[in-house]
């Protein structure tokens, strides 16, 4: 059964893997390199990962073609958007929240590899009303 605890535990693991990748590679590389490394380490640790798939856009009951693509979807539960930028901008939050809404996912993580410390400044976890409706345990 899907619970907040299960999502929180998965989120903790994903951020831990991001820290491992960051420690090994450091900041300053292209986003695509971090994406490949994150997918590899997640799969290596038994997680299912979907990469760069189209996010369906439903407008007035019609599914429209779009070029929206998420970076990673882990265990079909958590959307992970990876960046390699000077700072996480509010538009990144908006984009991830939109992906979460369109895909009916309750949790997403923004990870910026262009920082000194992923845990302190390089990640942000977002939830929506779907998360709030899940049982805690």
Keywords for this structure?
single chain; 137 residues; alpha+beta; Trna Endonuclease, Chain: A, domain 1; two-stranded antiparallel sheet; 42% helix; globular
Shape verdict:
globular
Q: Could you tell me the radius of gyration in angstroms?
A: 15 Å
CATH class: Alpha Beta
Number of helices: 5
Low-confidence stretches: none
Q: How does the major sheet shape up?
A: 5 strands, mixed
Overview of the structural elements:
It is globular, with a radius of gyration of 15 Å. α1 packs across α2. The model has no long low-confidence stretch (mean pLDDT 96). It has helices at 4-25, 31-44, 90-103, 118-121, 129-132; strands at residues 49-51, 57-59, 62-64, 72-74, 78-83, 107-112, 123-127. It has a single domain (4-132), classed as 3-Layer(aba) Sandwich (Trna Endonuclease, Chain: A, domain 1), CATH 3.40.1350. The strands form two sheets. Strands 1-4-5-6-7 form a five-stranded mixed β-sheet, sandwiched between helices. A two-stranded antiparallel ribbon has the order 2-3. It is built from five helices and seven strands. β4 and β5 form a beta hairpin. With 137 residues, it is of the alpha+beta class.
Write a concise synopsis of the structure shown.
The protein has helices at 4-25, 31-44, 90-103, 118-121, 129-132, and strands spanning 49-51, 57-59, 62-64, 72-74, 78-83, 107-112, 123-127. By secondary structure, the protein is of the alpha+beta class.
